Amino acid sequence: MAGDEALIALGIGGRRDASADTIEAVVAQALRAASLVSSDIAVIATAADKRDEAGIVEAAKRLRRPLVGVAAAELAAVADRAVTYSDLVHRLKGVPSIAETAALVAAGRHARLILPRMANASATCALAEGDGAFPAENGG
Fold first, then answer.
1. Which of 33, 49, 81, 97 is 20 to 30 A away from residue 71, measured at CA?
2. Pick from 87, 88, 84: nearest CA to 101
């Protein structure tokens, strides 16, 4: 689905208590929907304040991909490109979707969603591709 030079980023959001198993389940669903495999993912991203949540950290370790935290201002800068809107997330974080905006930022310049937010009971994820120019900062 992605071009030869494109970087694919996986954005993760969800509840603070989301387990790695729950996160992995929604990621597997998303990868199937996008006809991708986990090795196609270059980076996993989430909001900077979620970067150290145990479930997200463990899921990234299991997927063997780097995890970056994206600052709120960077999430807000791409919010107009998100296609899913969560009223709760917007009230709490100021963006329509953590998963989508984190994926868009992490994919770099010219990023576009290749799979909008998918969700289960406590975790969300989205996939984006871009040129990979995102600065590799953890945001915390």
1. 33
2. 84
